[in-house]
Amino acid sequence: MPALTVKAVTKALSDYVRPDEDIVAKLNMVMPRIYAMGMWRDLLYDWTIETTNDYFALPEHAESLLGAMVQNSPVEAQAQWHDYRISGYASDGPAPIFGVVDDGFHPIKEDIFHEEPTDTGRIRVEPVAPNTTLPTHGSITVVFGENTDSVAGEDQVSKYTFNLNGEAFLRALDGSDQIVESVMDVKSITFNDIAEQVEVSHYVVATAVKTVLATVKGDGVARYRRFRFSNSSGSTQNVKLLLKRAWEPVLTQDDILYLGNLNAIKHGLLGMLAEDNADLERAQYHWTICRQLLDEELDAARGAAKPKPILKPVGNQINIPNII
Hints:
Layout: E1 4-5, H1 6-13, H2 23-37, E2 44-51, E3 55-57, E4 62-70, E5 73-75, E6 77-78, H3 82-87, E7 100-106, E8 121-127, E9 139-146, E10 156-163, E11 170-171, E12 183-204, E13 209-221, E14 224-228, E15 237-245, E16 256-257, H4 262-276, H5 280-302
Parallel strand pairs: 6-7
Antiparallel strand pairs: 1-16, 2-15, 3-14, 4-5, 4-15, 7-14, 8-11, 8-12, 9-10, 9-12, 12-13
């Protein structure tokens, strides 16, 4: 099967971990290594984004970008050092001929939009559908810049921790239990012990504009990989992406593993067990068999739809090199 639940894996492979160990914790150590070994079956998927910005962020469940189409036209992806070596930085996005350019990691999915320089807003935490209430435990800490007067600009940096308690939503409060409405920008979002997905958003009171900043689950720090592209007109652009799945830590028995090869997972668990026992030769054997099983499964799943190599003698250059 292409995908399995933690419950199915636990039922089949619980004998391959020590009795005093939690198989869920072991899966959270083994599976990232298996995901990183290659682009296995069901690890590639399509995603569509519509945006008026000159950038887009990969979703939290994506590891990397493999292909992109803007307005249904294929575009090439450029590395993060592209601006430094080729074109220089353009504030309104790279030239259309360059496609999409890697912009590295950012603390939030989308920058907060200010229609007026003095616009400020609230930070909200709310559940993600189909849930209607927040989890009963866990916390989210947001570090943000505030404007505390009528002059445009950031005046101070503040921090607020949301302690989840099963309510429908939460808002950042000040020391007098009043809603903080002076948020200009978000510096970082950290989260701890969150069992279900939770959305952190910014709401501008004056314009009623809501910006989703992050979707979080488990423990960690929100980081989003962005790509810039040409959209100087600010029109709505349809961006179709081919992505590789990121490993999302599993917490409950109903969480999904998008890699259903039980034999490969078994050898991964045995390989880690051998490493824990300092048996490097046996560990190497298990990890080799794990990769071999996944390669065989991928080849069988592709069938006739195998990728074809494309040769570019002059590389991705936009000009014709002088070869005389």
